[in-house]
């Protein structure tokens, strides 16, 4: 890496010194150079104007501050840690993606995932539930460099077949994005964080959690943890 | 007593105007370097990706930093090239002292820095246009600079360019004094970095020096830091220049 940088500097320095020779050895005449420079500045002004006028081909993505990112990560960790210790609150602060209510016909329920899809399932037996189960899909925030991509994720599909609850994987989603920044000399005095050449980048894909509230007498089979 | 008396200021400005015309080549190299920077930047200055389950993301970064760095290297090289024998002999077209020649060089470098900073700022907008409109990639602007922030950025970039030009000018002058210095300086730098890496496990010399300027969020403080450093390097170069023998 260091060698590549030094080589690049040397190449640029060589090019600059060759092109910057004084008028006696200049390979382009003074008038042509002046004309080129004016043309270059004019073209850049036109491009800059167009860049400011034309809307950015921007998807609707909410930007999160560093503080918000930190809070949402902490929240996801807290909820998951508590759930693994056996305590799960319905109002836990995570995003509720979808809710389903399925009627139950028998005393048994099997939970199966399709296409080897893995999702964390927590079950709470509740006396309030009659002959139905309630499934809630929670999701932690998916954040990449401050961009909230949570709603770009595909939704989990759920179906009940007899006494089997089938959890189908969401459709594959590939998000391609371009992040444009002015560069360090211009960002340095703006409200944005000062960054070195490439800056720090981070990404967190939010965890999907299914929380099932089931009647007390229902026997459930499948990969799940009991809470509360 | 002479029939025509000229003051230093007039001679400096005459020589400065001469340099602006004679050294137009530096702007050819500026254009070349900045276009090269934009071309390199179009392929992205960084990328990151990840996947979990059925979701994957790929984020490419397009930053004006590369053009800025290329411009700083250009400024550094220009500072050096102004001290070469060929350029110094050009000054003999005028009846001038070394003091006059140095002032004219500083003025020329400052003017070139203004132009480079201005075009550097514009290239960041050009890059934004190319990425969002021509590459058609869904784009997010990380920073939306206000007019004040853009002006501060422009001023800051100008000071950076002038700083690099002054360092180049000083090193160039040093190398003119003694040719071995031209060889010793990069060797010394690599040795210091290597020793630091050996002792501390991390070569942070350049990062530490850079952080002193780059991590300064206050424009005023940054201006003070860079102006003092630039002045210091030009002063040293001036003092070295005065010690150069005629014909060296």
TrEMBL record, chain B:
<feature type="transmembrane region" description="Helical">
    <location>
        <begin position="62"/>
        <end position="82"/>
    </location>
</feature>
<keyword id="KW-0472">Membrane</keyword>
<keyword id="KW-1133">Transmembrane helix</keyword>
<feature type="transmembrane region" description="Helical">
    <location>
        <begin position="219"/>
        <end position="240"/>
    </location>
</feature>
<protein>
    <recommendedName>
        <fullName>ABC transporter permease</fullName>
    </recommendedName>
</protein>
<feature type="transmembrane region" description="Helical">
    <location>
        <begin position="180"/>
        <end position="199"/>
    </location>
</feature>
<feature type="transmembrane region" description="Helical">
    <location>
        <begin position="20"/>
        <end position="42"/>
    </location>
</feature>
<feature type="transmembrane region" description="Helical">
    <location>
        <begin position="103"/>
        <end position="127"/>
    </location>
</feature>
<keyword id="KW-0812">Transmembrane</keyword>
<feature type="transmembrane region" description="Helical">
    <location>
        <begin position="157"/>
        <end position="175"/>
    </location>
</feature>
């Amino acid at each position: 890496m260091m060698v590549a940088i030094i080589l690049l500097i040397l190449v640029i320095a060589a090019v600059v010194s060759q092109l910057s020779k004084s008028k006696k050895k200049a390979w382009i005449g003074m008038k042509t150079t002046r004309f080129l420079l004016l043309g270059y500045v004019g073209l850049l002004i036109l491009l800059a104007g167009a860049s400011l006028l034309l809307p950015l081909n921007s998807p609707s993505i909410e930007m999160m501050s560093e503080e918000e990112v930190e809070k949402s990560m902490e929240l996801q960790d807290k909820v998951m840690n508590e759930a693994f210790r056996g305590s799960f609150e319905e109002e836990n602060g995570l995003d509720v993606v979808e809710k389903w209510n399925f009627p139950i016909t028998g005393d048994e329920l099997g939970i199966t995932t399709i296409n080897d899809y893995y999702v964390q399932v927590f079950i709470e037996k509740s006396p309030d539930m009659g002959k139905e189960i309630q499934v809630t899909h929670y999701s932690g925030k998916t954040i990449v460099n401050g961009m909230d991509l949570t709603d770009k994720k595909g939704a989990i599909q759920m179906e009940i077949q007899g006494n089997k609850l089938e959890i189908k994987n969401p459709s594959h989603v590939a998000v391609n994005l371009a992040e444009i920044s002015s560069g360090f000399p211009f960002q340095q005095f703006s409200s944005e964080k000062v960054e070195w050449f490439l800056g720090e980048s981070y990404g967190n894909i939010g965890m999907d959690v299914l929380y099932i509230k089931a009647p007390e007498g229902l026997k459930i089979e499948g990969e799940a943890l009991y809470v509360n | 007593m002479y029939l025509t008396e000229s003051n230093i200021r007039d001679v400096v400005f005459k020589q400065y105007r001469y340099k602006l015309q004679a050294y137009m080549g530096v702007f050819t190299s500026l254009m070349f370097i900045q276009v090269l920077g934009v071309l390199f930047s179009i392929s992205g200055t960084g990328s990151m990706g990840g996947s979990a389950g059925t979701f994957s993301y790929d984020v490419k970064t397009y930053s004006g930093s590369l053009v800025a760095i290329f411009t700083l290297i250009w400024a550094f090289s220009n500072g050096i090239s102004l001290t070469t024998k060929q350029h110094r002999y050009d000054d003999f077209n005028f009846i001038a002292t070394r003091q006059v020649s140095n002032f004219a060089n500083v003025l020329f470098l400052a003017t070139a820095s203004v132009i480079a900073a201005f075009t550097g700022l514009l290239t960041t907008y050009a890059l934004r246009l190319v990425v969002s409109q021509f590459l058609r990639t869904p784009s997010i602007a990380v920073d939306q600079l206000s007019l004040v922030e853009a002006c501060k950025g422009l001023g800051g970039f100008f000071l950076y360019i002038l700083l690099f030009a002054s360092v180049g000018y000083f090193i160039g002058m040093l190398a003119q004094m003694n040719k071995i210095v031209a060889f010793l300086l990069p060797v010394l730098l690599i040795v210091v970095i290597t020793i630091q890496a050996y002792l501390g496990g991390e070569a942070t010399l350049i990062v530490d020096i850079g952080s002193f300027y780059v991590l300064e969020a206050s424009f005023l403080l940054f201006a003070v830091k860079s102006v003092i450093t630039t002045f210091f390097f030009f002063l040293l170069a001036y003092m070295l220049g005065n010690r150069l023998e005629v014909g060296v």
